User: Fold these one by one.
Assistant:
Number 1:
Amino acid sequence: MIWRLMTGEDMDAVSAVSDAVHGPYTEPRAVYAERRDLYPTGCFVLETDNGVVGYLIVHPWRHEAPPPLGEMVHALPNTADSLYLHDLALTPDVRGTGMGASGTAIAFDLAVSTGLYDLFLLAVGNADRFWATRGFTPVRNVALADHLCTAYGPEVIYIHCRVSST
């Protein structure tokens, strides 16, 4: 298994992984393609001999306003203050193999190389437990939490990790 940069030809496979993994939280194929077009440096797929079995999408963003689920963002902010970890998705057959940790390491390396040391993401479906083992903690912002619950449902947790440059 190897992580490699995502290409335009990977969009059908990325969409299929999302559909298989995320259920009601899957997004339209166009969302993944747009994120890749806007920030190809932060888009990766996990590939095996059998094809794409996972993906990672990370891009610069403003921490106080996570991108809405399933919607196009049209542009990245000129005043990005963090990286948004849009998604790390792995098919069930590769979970537990260390690929989640290696995908997270890619995101951490990107944070260091860009100088945007704060990583944020929205965790659903108890994914916060996975992220907690990687140093992520819940963001304490009542107004934002209320807004996210309206958009994503009551199980969403906005979490953060400050990546060390050493």
Number 2:
Amino acid sequence: MQVQKVTPDAFADAVRNLMAEYGEEVGQSVKEDVKDIGKETVRLVHQNIDAAGIGGRKYRKSFKDTVTKDTAWITTVEIHSPKHYRLTHLLEFGHVVKVKGKVVGAARAYPHLATAETEAEELLGKKIAISVKG
């Protein structure tokens, strides 16, 4: 960081400018952190699918990270399976099995998204803390 000499009258403006610079740098770092964690979360989902014993390479490969919102203040990344979104819900939460309108059993849940979400939240918190500290 560069040392600046300012007069007492210009001190408030100098501090304001430094804080704006810092905010911009941290904001960009956090946006990049969110995007990086999105990619990491897809990897975690892939691992969890394998660990849960869910077969099917097509299902595993279908998960993507998509930046759904990217403004000056907010960056949002969504992890989803555009081809198998109905199957995703059924596998994550389980479901009842009906035959001719009669409940004949239940399919168990294979949680694979919730654990990846929890891990991603923790990783993002750590990564942002590092970015803010500089």
Number 3:
Amino acid sequence: MPDPGIEKAALVLIDVQRGFDDPVWGTRNNPACEANVATLLAHWRERGRPVVFVRHDSSEPGSPLAGGSAGNDFKDVITGEPELLVVKSTNSAFYGEPDLDRWLRQSGIDTLVIAGITTNHCCETTARMAGNLGYETFFALDATHTFERRAPSGRIIGADELSAVTAANLDGEFATVVSTEDLLR
């Protein structure tokens, strides 16, 4: 259960972009991700809490997330204007523009809730960095999704397994893994 500090937390919504609907990514998990993102966003806005949108502008040729492409646009669940829009081309929102860490510190924010796409890439990387930078970090696992991946051995690792590993990697070390329902209480 989140502590009272959650009342001052910034909601950081990472890469909730149309390009992740492209079949090139493979089989995904958690079909409830977008609904949970929308629920968290509405909850944060109702309470006047800060919201950060993060957008991945891929520099890879042909990427569904390339800047200026339809896939670069946010999905319909990302509505309204954020207090901050961070644009990045790497995994961590802390390496985007404008500087997320600087903005959070100048705004007096020391607690983050992370949600978005993909669980084990940009969301996990941002959560790890947030924890290392000293932020109290909550990772809304059911408001993220990912895709199956092929291991170097050739074995296909399912998206649910990757999400479970991300939760195990983060919880108690870099973040507290929570559900959308936990955050609404």
Number 4:
Amino acid sequence: MRKSINYLSLPYNPALKQRARELRKAGNLAEVLMWRQFRDKSFKGYDFDRQKIIGNYIVDFFCLDNGVVIEIDGRSHDGKVQYDQARDEYLEGLGLVVIHILASDVLHRLDGVMTMLENHFAFM
């Protein structure tokens, strides 16, 4: 496991707090299904946050234990290649690992997604 990152060491934009709350309440199906896999430390004992603010971004899932961001890429990411790339570079610049998962894979191949995560270097 990688060295833990302190929450307080991560940049935080308080102006995004209400938007993060709205996203948690709205939750699309793929995100809800992933949250069921992560909540209450049910994935390998790791603690995840949902719709976490990091800098000027809201990430889908964040695991502080090992500095992993998981993004579920669905329709909201269509046409946002440059935005997503800039966000990934920013997050990786903070020393975080960014993992992208297609929403369609979560919806149709959740077992395969979880196997991939179980074997991902960030969770070893």
